[in-house]
Each structure stands twice: as structure tokens, then as C-alpha cells.
Design goal:
Strand order of the largest sheet: 2-3-4-5
Low-confidence stretches: none
Order of helices and strands: EEEEEEE
Distance between the termini: 16 Å
Number of strands: 7
Length: 101
């Protein structure tokens, strides 16, 4: 598991090397929750995925992403909000060996 550093702001873009994949993650707080876009090698793989506590974000191996992403609430079981990103709500990368099908 790898923690991806985030800031407590409503819109941000983060670059990270995840499982030997150059990734760009775009996170936006909207009216009905936090949403995520994932790019690998500047190619959009998933778009507009709602972020929920401990719910995998990529889910489908056929997309070609090795591993998965999920948010984890460190103080309970709430879905993430922008004001807690990076502290209460951590974005984590799970490598292929950590995934349970």
C-alpha cells in the first residue's frame, strides 16, 4: 500500500509513480461528493468516479491499470470531503498483490 499525498482543497491534480505506471490523478469536490479521474501515460483510464470510503475506484482489470486506488477514512467510515483530504481521508494505492478479487 502506498499513500498518495493530497491537500485539503476542492480541486487538485497529483502526479505519482504507481506500480511502475506514470499516473496523474485529478480530484474534484462537487455538490454530491468527491470525484476522481485517473490518467496513465497521459491516457484517461477512468473518469468521474465517485470516491467512497474503502471502495475501490478502478475495479476492472481490463482497463489495463495495475493495482487499484481507494480512499480510507482514518476516523470512521465517512466518504471523503475536500476539507479532510490528506489528513482524515487518505488516498491509497493497492498493488496487485494486495487486491482481493
Amino acid at each position: 500500500m502506498q499513500i498518495i499525498p493530497l491537500q485539503a482543497v476542492p480541486s487538485q491534480s497529483v502526479k505519482a509513480q504507481l506500480g511502475n505506471q506514470p499516473c496523474k490523478i485529478v480530484i474534484q469536490q462537487k455538490l454530491y461528493g468527491v470525484f476522481l479521474d485517473l490518467y496513465v501515460n497521459e491516457v484517461l483510464l477512468v473518469a468521474g468516479v465517485i470516491c467512497q470510503d474503502r471502495n475501490r475506484l478502478v475495479r476492472s482489470a481490463y482497463i489495463g491499470f495495475v493495482g487499484d486506488l481507494m480512499f480510507e477514512d482514518l476516523q470512521g467510515a465517512e466518504d471523503p470531503t475536500a476539507n479532510g483530504l490528506g489528513s482524515r481521508f487518505q488516498l491509497v494505492y493497492l498493488d496487485a498483490s494486495e487486491l482481493v478479487n
